[in-house]
Amino acid sequence: MLELLWLVPLAPLGGFLILAVARARLGRRAVATVGVGSAGVALAAAGAVAAGFFALPAAGRVYEQNLGTWISAGDLAARFVLHLDALALVMMAVVTLVGFLILLYSAESMAGDEGYARFFCYMNLFVASMLVLVLAGDLLLLYLGWEGVGLCSYLLIGFWYREPANARAAKKAFIVTRVGDAALLVGLLVLFTQMGTSDIGGLLARAAERWPTGSSVATLAALLLLAGAVGKSAQLPLQVWLPDAMAGPTPVSALIHAATMVTAGVYLLSRMHGLFALAPAAATVTAVIGAATLLLAGTSALVQRDLKRVLAYSTMSQVGYMFVALGVGAWGAAIFHFVTHAVFKSLLFLAAGAVIAALGEEHDLFKMGGLRQRLPLVFWTFLAGAASLAALPLVTAGFYSKEEILAAAWAGPAGGRWLWAAGAVGAAVTALYTGRMVFLVFFGTAKREPSQQPGWAMATVLVILAALSVSGWWLDPRWLLGGTEIAATLPVRLAGTAAALAGIVLAWYFYLRRPALAARVAQSRAGAALGRWWIGGWGFDWLYNFIFVRPYVWLTQLGRDELLDGPFRTLGRTLDLAHAGMSWTVTGRVRWYAAALAAGAIAAIAVAVWR
Amino acid sequence: MNSVSPESGLVVAAVLFALGLGGVLARRNMLFVLMSIEIMLNAAALAMITAGARHHAADGQVMFMFILATAAAEVAVGLAIVLLIYRRRRTLDVDEAREMRG
Amino acid sequence: MQGLFYVSAAVAVLATALVVTRRNAAHALLYLVLSLAAVAGMFYALGAPLAAALEVIVYAGAIMVLFVFAVMVLALGREGERQESQWLRPRMWLGPAALAAVLLGELIYVLASGAAAVAGGTPVVVGPQEVGAALFGPYALGAELSSMLLLAGMVAAYHLARRKQMDEKEGER
Counting CB atoms within 10 angstroms of each CB, which of A45, A104, A494, A605 has the fewest? Predict the structure, then answer.
C-alpha cells in the first residue's frame, strides 16, 4: 500500500494539469468532478498509505520513495524523494482530508462564479504543492513546494483580480512572504554548504554530530529557517499580509490562510526540530515571537468589524501558540494544535462563508445578528468551531491542544512563567473575541434576512468538521510522533482552563447581557484610542509604510528621471544624431556608392602602403 | 624569347583598372557602366595571368576562367536588369534608379 | 614576344580610353572588342595561349554579342547621343577621373616600390593541358561553384525576362 505514496501529490497535480489545459472545454460539472475528484483520489491514496504505514513494525516507521533525480551537479544531488514518517503522515492526512472537504464545499459555494474552472485549477495546484511540501525528503524539494504554495496563495488572494484592492492584497502577501522566503533559501544554502547534503534526514544526523549545542552556525541556520517560517506563518514581524489576504474567496481563506499554508512554518520548524535543539537561542526567539504574536493578534481580533478579518487575526494568534510550543521544545503539542486548528478554523471560515453568502456578501459584524433561528445548521456548526477555538473545556478538541501548549510553556524543557502568562492571557482574549463574534452574528436582533441556506455539499462538510471539532482529545497525534511527555501540575492546568472560561463569561456579559456597556467602553476615550490602534493590527502597516515603502517609493521617484535615465537618454540622443549624420550618406545613387567604395579602397591601400 | 617583366603586365592591368573605374564613376548611362565593369574585370584577369606567368604556374589561368565565368553571369543578369529598367522608365540614367535610398 | 606585349598594351590602353569616353554606345562597343582582343594578345605574350583563346572566344565573342543585342534592343540612336553629350560634361567626369588617377598612382607606386622583389623569370608557356589538370584537380570545387554561378545567372536572366512578359500582359489588360 505504501507504494501508492507517489499518487498523493500527483493526483491533485494531474487535476491541475487537466484543468489548466482543458478548462475552456469542460462544463461546470466536469470541472467540479475533476477538481474535487483529484483531491478525493489523493485522500483515498493517503488512506491506503496510512494503512500500509501502520502495518510497518512500530520501531523505525519510515518510508522513502525516490521518484528520480532532480538536480545533479557536483556535490548537490537533489532528488524527487518522498519521505513518510509520523510527522509527514499527520500533515498529509490533515492536508488531504481538509483539502478534500473544502474543495467539496467550494463545488457548491463557488458555483455562481465565472472563474469556476480557474478556481479549481489553482486549488488543485495548491493541494499538490502543499503535499510536496509536507512529503519532501529533500530540502530543495521542500522549497519547491514552499514556493508553490506561495504562488497559489498569490493567485488565489487575487482571484477576483478586477478589484484593484484584491490585486494589491495579493501583491502585499507575495512580497512580504518573499522576505521570509529569501531568508529561508539562504538558510537552506547555509545548511547545504555546511553539511554537503540536501537530504533532510542525513542533514539533521550530520548536524547533530558536527555542531555542539549552541554553536553559532547552528543558531544562524535555525534563525534563517525561523525567518522563513515567520513569513509563511504570518508571525511578527512579517504578519501584516494575512489580514489583507482575506480578499480571496472564503474557501481559499479556509484552506490556505487558516488550515494548511500558514502552518507550513510550523511544519518546517517541527521537521527541523533537531536543529533547534542545537540552537537554544533560536528556540527562545521562536517562543518569544509566538507569544508576542498571539497577544498582538488576539487584541487586534477583539476590535475588528469584518468577520473574516477577526478569523484572520485569530489564525495568527493560534499559529502564535504553535510557535510558543515549538520554542519550548514541545513540537508534538504544536502539531496537535495544528491538527485541531486546521479542523476548527476551516470550519469557522466555511461557516462564516455561508453566513456571508446568505447575507449577500455582508462582512460587517455589526450588520449581522439574530441568525440563530434563521440559519440553524450554520449556527450549530459555527458554535462547535467557536467552542473549540475558545477552548471550551472537556468536549472540544481545541481545549486539549491548547492546554498542552500552556502546560508545555510552564513546564516544558525551555518553558517559563512569562510565556505561560502570555498564553493564558491570550487564551482569555481568544475566548473573548470568539464570544463577541458568536454573539454579534447569531444573537441579538436580526438586521437582515438571509437569502439562502447552505446546500447538501456545504452542509455535509460543515457537519463533518463540526463533529471533528468537538471530538475531544482523540485527534492528538502525539502517540504517533513520540517526543517528551509534559508533566504539568494540576493547578497550572486548571489556571489555564479558568482563563479560557473567564474569557467566555466576559464575552457573554459584554456582548449579550450588557451590549450597552461594551459600546460605552468602546466609545470612551481610552477605548476608542485602543480600538483605533488595534484595528490596524497595532499599526504595523503604518510603521512599515513609513520605514520601507515610503523611502523606497521616494528612491524610485528620485531615480525615475534623474540618476539612471541620464546616461541612457544621452545614448539615445547620440544615436539619433549619428543616425541623422549617417542617413545623409544613404542617397540611393549607385554611382555615389561606387565612388564611396573606390574611395574606401584608395584609403585602405594608402594605409597599407604608407603605414 | 625576350622576357616580359611582370611589372609591365601589372602596370597595364592597373591602368586598365583605373580607366574602368573612371568609367563606372563618370558615366550615367547604364550600358557604359556595365562596359566599364567589364573592363575592370578584364584588368583583374590580366593581373592574374601576369602573376601566373611570373611563377610559371597554371593557377593564374584557372583564376582567369573563374573571372570569365563571373563576368558572363554578371553580364547576363546585368543586361536583363538594364532592359527591364529601360522598359519601365524609358531611361538609362543610373541616377534615376534610387528607390533604395534609406 | 616583348614587342607583341608592348604593342598590345598600347592598343589596349588606347582602345579602353576610347570606350570610356565615347558617346555612341555602338562605337564604344567596337572599341571594347578591340581592347579585349589586345588583352588577348598580351595573354599570349605572357605565355598563356589558352587564356588568350578564351578571351577572344568568350569575351570578345559571346559576351560582346550580348552587349550588341542590348544596344540593338535599346536602339538609342541620335537621341541617345545627344543625351550622352549632356551627361558627359567636365563637371561630371572631373571628380571620378581624379579618383581613378589617384588609384592608378597608388598602384604604380606599389609596383615600383616592390619591383626588386618580383624581378626576373622568363615567361614559360603554360599550356592547356596543365591548366585543365589544375582546374579539375585542386580547383575542382571552384569549378563547380563557377558552374553553379552560371546556372544562377541563367535562371536570374530568364526570370527577369519572364517578369517583362508579365508586365506586358498587365499593360494589355
Answer: A494
Residues contacting A37, CB < 8 A, separation 6+: A15
Cβ proximity of A189 and A143 under 8 Å: no
Closest CA to A535 of A545, A547, A524, A527: A527
Our measurement of the distance from residue A329's CA atom to the centroid of its chain's CA atoms, rounded to an integer in Å, reads: 22
In a domain, A206, yes or no: no
Domain boundaries, chain B: 6-92
Rounded CA-CA distance A473/A464 in Å is 16
Give me the pLDDT at residue A544, please. Answer: 83
pLDDT of residue B1: 43
Q: How far apart are CA B19 and CA C9, in angstroms?
A: 14
Instruction: Return d(Cα B12, Cα B20) in angstroms, integer.
Output: 12
Which residue's C-alpha cell is 544615436?
A: A575
Q: In the prediction, which pLDDT does B41 show?
A: 93
| E runs forming strands in chain C | none
Mean pLDDT, contiguous 10-residue spans, chain A (611 residues): 84 90 83 89 90 80 81 77 86 90 88 85 91 88 90 89 87 89 90 82 83 84 90 85 85 84 88 85 88 89 86 90 87 87 90 86 80 84 88 81 83 75 88 87 80 83 87 72 65 81 84 77 78 78 83 80 76 91 80 87 86 73
Q: Search chain A and give the residue with CA nearest C113.
A: A609
Asked if A512 and A597 sit in the same domain, the reply is no
For A584, list phi and psi in degrees, rounded to 5.
-60, -35
A228 within 8 A of A269, measured Cβ to Cβ: no
Predicted local distance difference test score (pLDDT) of residue C173? 43
Residue C118 has a pLDDT of 47
Do A514 and A570 reside in the same domain of the chain? Answer: no
pLDDT attached to residue A20? 87
Q: Report residue B40's pLDDT band, with 50, 70 and 90 as the boundaries.
A: very high
> Does residue B75 surpass a pLDDT of 60?
yes
- Chain C positions in Cβ-Cβ contact with residue A605 (cut-off 8 Å): 103, 106-107, 110
Look at residue A550 in the predicted model and tell me its pLDDT: 86
- What number of C-beta contacts closer than 8 Å exist between B and C? 253
Report how far apart, in Å, the C-alpha atoms of C28 and of each of B34, C17, C18, C34, C64 are.
12, 10, 7, 10, 11
Which pLDDT does position A412 carry in this prediction?
A: 65
Give kind and range of the element (H or E) at residue C43: helix C25-45
Given an 8 Å threshold on Cβ–Cβ distance, is B21 in contact with A598?
yes
Residues with Cβ < 8 Å from A42, sequence gap 6 or more? Answer: A7, A8, A9, A11, A12, A96, A99, A100, A127, A131
Touching partners of B (3+ C-beta pairs < 8 Å): A, C
Q: Rounded to an integer, what distance in angstroms lies between the CA atom of residue A77 and that of residue A87? A: 24
Whether A368 and A452 map to the same domain: the answer is: yes
Domain that holds residue A579: 562-609
A591 to chain B, any CB pair closer than 8 A? The answer is: yes
pLDDT exceeds 70 at position B2: no
C-alpha span between C41 and C15 (Å, rounded): 14
Domain count, chain A: 2
CA distance C170 to chain B (A): 12
Cα–Cα distance, A551 to B93 (Å, whole number): 68
Cis? peptide before A491, omega within 30° of 0: no
User: B54-67: b or e for each residue (b if 16 or more CB lie within 10 Å)?
Assistant: beebbbbbbbbbbb
Task: Looking at the structure, tell me whether residues A306 and A375 fall in a common domain.
Answer: yes
Of B26, B45, B84, which is closest to C164 when you measure between CB atoms? B84
| Structural fold of domain B6-92 | Helix Hairpins (1.10.287)
SS3 for C75? coil
Burial of A526 (0-12, 13-18, 19+ CB in 10 A): exposed
Asked if residue B75 lies in contact with residue B34, where contact means CB atoms within 8 angstroms, the answer is: yes
- pLDDT tens per residue across span B85-99: 888 877 778 777 776
